[in-house]
Amino acid sequence: MLVKIEESWFSKLKVEFEKPYFKSLVAFVKEEYTAQRCFPPGNQIFAAFDNTPFDQVKVVILGQDPYHGPNQANGLCFSVNDGVLKPPSLKNIFREIQEDLKTPIPQSGNLERWAQQGVFLLNATLTVRAHQAGSHQNKGWEQFTDKVIELISKEKEGVVFLLWGGYAKRKIKLIDTEKHLVLTSGHPSPLSANRGFWFGNKHFSRANEYFENRGIKTIKW
């Protein structure tokens, strides 16, 4: 089955693409994109993979669903296209970076610049129907992205996994915590952040400190 995805990921995941669940998932997604307005655009469904080849993955950030409003989702979790207003969670991520690293908040909410430095911005579910959060959950995406997390954990070493919120934290069971750094906190959404579960986690400086100690280039957050 032909899946348009970056070459190094294709070679690692081609067995997965041939499994019955994934073929059913492809059929579902094609039908949804034909009959409904869905996000992200079809050519950006695998943007996280296309922007961050397997060998370049240094950090994994896990989201749950793509944004479901017009022109927001670009295939990278928490990221929006240039010129689009920053959603509340992303505003809180930038606020934490500002406080943690003493750097200015960027004008654009497009996180491609992170992805190109090795930050793998993976949503557990890669597609969504417009204005219907969670509409493509439990169709097979989670089985696929769990396999991706397991693959990174198994075949790489020294990756920083940032697990924000209850959903992401449950993925720790897929990660070998002996050879990777796993940092957890509340979700950056206002509901969690405003109750004191997000701000002050210092995940961005802690990730860079980990890389510095290993002689690895840090991330320009």
TrEMBL record:
The active site is at 65 (proton acceptor). It comes from Planktosalinus lacus. It is found in: Cytoplasm. Belongs to the uracil-DNA glycosylase (UDG) superfamily. UNG family. GO terms for cellular component: cytoplasm. The keyword DNA repair applies. It comes from the Bacteria. Keywords: Cytoplasm, DNA damage, DNA repair, Hydrolase. NCBIfam families: PRK05254.1-1 (NF003588), PRK05254.1-2 (NF003589), PRK05254.1-4 (NF003591), PRK05254.1-5 (NF003592), ung (TIGR00628). Residues 50-211 form the Uracil-DNA glycosylase-like domain. Its main location: cytoplasm. One of its GO terms (biological process) is base-excision repair, AP site formation via deaminated base removal. GO terms for molecular function: uracil DNA N-glycosylase activity. It is an enzyme of class 3 (hydrolase). This is Uracil-DNA glycosylase. It catalyses: Hydrolyzes single-stranded DNA or mismatched double-stranded DNA and polynucleotides, releasing free uracil. Its EC number is 3.2.2.27. It holds the Pfam family UDG. Excises uracil residues from the DNA which can arise as a result of misincorporation of dUMP residues by DNA polymerase or due to deamination of cytosine. The keyword Hydrolase applies.
